[in-house]
Amino acid sequence: MTDAYAYEDEERDRSLDIAVTGMAGRFPGAAGIEPWWQALLRGEILTTRMGRDELLAAGESPRVVDSPDYVPVRGLLDDADRFDHELFGISPREAALMDPQQRLMLETAWQALEDAGCDPTQEQLVTGVYASASSSAYLRAMLTSNTLDAAGVEEALRANEPDYMATRIAYRLGLTGPALTALTACSSSLVAVHLAVQALLNGECEQAVVVAAAVDFPQLGHVHLPGGILSASGSCRPFDADADGALAGSGVAAVVLRRYEDAAEAGCDPYGLIIGTAVNNDGRAKAGYQAPSATGQEAVVRSALAAAGIGADALGYLEAHATGTRVGDPIEWSAASSVLRELGAAPGQIAVGAVKANIGHLDAASGLVSLIKTLLVVRHGQVPPVAGFRTLNPLLETAGSPLRVPAAGFDWDAGDAPRRAGVSSFGIGGTNAHVVVEQAPALVQETAPVRDFEAGAPDDEHLLVVSAATPDALRDSALRIAAWLPCAQSTALGDTARTLATGRATLPYRTAVTGRSRTELAERLRDATPSRADGPAPHVVFLLPGQGSQYPGMARPFADALPGFTDLLDDCLAHLARLVPGMAARLRTALFDPDFPAAELERTELAQVALFCVEYAAATALGRLGLAPAALAGHSLGEFTAAALSGVLGLADALALVTARGRAMGDCPTGAMAAVAVREDRARELAAAYGLEVAAVNTPESCVLAGPASAVKALGAGLEG
């Protein structure tokens, strides 16, 4: 299966599409997206049955644990109480007061931005934050412990209440777009996705982070109540004949969203596209306040497909809300069957997914988790089985239904069309959300020589840099990258090196390795020793030479080794193409072809522009990597580059001046220069004697004389005699 689709049909308005450029998450039984996805493909049930001693140690009372109605099962999140507080500049006391959900959301939002290729500490896009989380059991435990004074209670409220979730992330990461919390019970995080999409389309932000968490504290089992929604057996079995209720799970997830056109222009490789969203409420069209409504669910699916501009005949997959309850599943199945059949879906056309069968119900985070799973389905073209499914619930209508429940996973081949899917999430209280996603288009590959050189040859050595706030975090990051490298065969090593160098924060503890293969790099990362950058950075001065230092192919070493160089060079050449038609293409050849005629590159109108473009692109790229100069020193043509780099001249103005200077110098009569080891007063005597000018005083005892070639030749003969 291909991860991206080459579109031929462009009738739909793609200006309304939203790209998912980054994602991150931690789930029961899986510390990251990739291991979780592999577990889903295997149909694994990732919930845990806890022992009595474990439950007692976690704080559950013996009376509750020994009750015949106690179910010691849930989706457990490992290390939910761990937090890298130093990364965010948070004191140990403040971290201890914070709800673990909010700690995890901070870390996961950071990871999602990094996955999108953004340095969270240097984010320049106007980025919004849309957050959701379950009610804070951690806060309730603190308030009922009677260990806080009045001031401590106020601090605890600010560290735990949902009002502060999104704004805390915005503050700690320096994000300046809208920051708000969405709370609609189980549908909260998918509603947050809808709000983020609307904000992007309305121009309220250029990028959005949607983040959600559901973590009880402590993580325990539940007491089954007859007629209640929680499972008596400890299994969540959506749409199955043996389904007996929901099961709680813990986890955290985040996605990064951008308008598709902006993401494509920036060269992003999206996980998929969001092409339609809708939110509504059941109103009074249901049996009771907590009951689901087929009418409301049908309406929200219909609205989302209308927003996407497609019919149900275009769908191949539906990630259902699917809690495994006796009431909820039949209503959802009936509503989805009815509306999808009405909108053109054929019998058995749409495979149904239910991630709650794997990890339990992640409450406020469940919608976002379902979205991430669905994006992976459309990206990879693989539909996981519904974990534990055996026999369809007889209460579900099957005659003519477009829905089918896969007991085994399968490859999804959509033929010439992109893969499209729906995601449903329904909240107690009646707020429903539905999102329609689509397989992302294939990236358009550049064919210019610059891009070829940037990718590097297979035998090129690559530099991978890693940094973290603590030694342990650095070790974990290095090991994660080492484990990921062999699995990422479709990602060029040059792209990996660039992302680590430019799309990650530069933190105090650092390590770097070089290698020519994934295996070599992974081995060196596993063996890497961290070092800490203490004290102020040493001062660096950039020296920018003048004409005479150019040579054919001079841009190649920078393009091969310096991330960001080629994009900056392209900017220079684009300006040049507008100034002098035809020159940019010729200059590109001169900069990358070592066999380009050296005599032609010595022509001043080409040499000066070549030097300026390479110097400007290299210096700017180094600055973006954190190697910022304390001073700039330019010689001759290099003075123009220094002026542009320091902001005295804009890039367009500097190129215009350099181009005009090169052309004017090329039009001058042929002359010559001579460097003489004399003081300035003696140089002026020689100039007067031979009809020359003092062109430069380089040092107290080194001057340059210039003038007609014949006069310079006579000067040389006279000095030698």
Secondary structure layout:
Blueprint: E1 18-26, H1 33-41, E2 48-49, H2 52-57, H3 62-65, E3 70-71, E4 73-74, H4 92-97, H5 100-115, E5 127-133, H6 137-144, H7 150-160, H8 165-173, E6 179-181, H9 188-201, E7 207-214, E8 222-223, E9 251-259, H10 260-265, E10 272-281, H11 294-308, E11 317-319, H12 328-342, E12 350-353, H13 356-359, H14 366-380, E13 382-383, E14 403-404, E15 410-411, E16 420-426, E17 431-438, H15 449-455, E18 462-468, H16 471-484, H17 493-502, E19 509-515, H18 518-526, E20 531-532, E21 541-544, H19 556-561, H20 565-579, H21 583-592, H22 598-601, H23 604-624, E22 631-634, H24 637-645, H25 651-667, E23 671-676, H26 680-690, E24 693-699, E25 702-708, H27 709-720
Parallel strand pairs: 5-6, 5-7, 11-12, 11-16, 12-14, 21-22
Antiparallel strand pairs: 1-9, 1-10, 2-4, 3-8, 7-9, 10-17, 13-15, 16-17, 18-19, 19-20, 23-25, 24-25
Helix pairs in contact: 5-8, 6-7, 9-14, 11-12, 16-18, 20-21, 20-23, 20-25, 21-23, 23-24, 23-25, 24-25
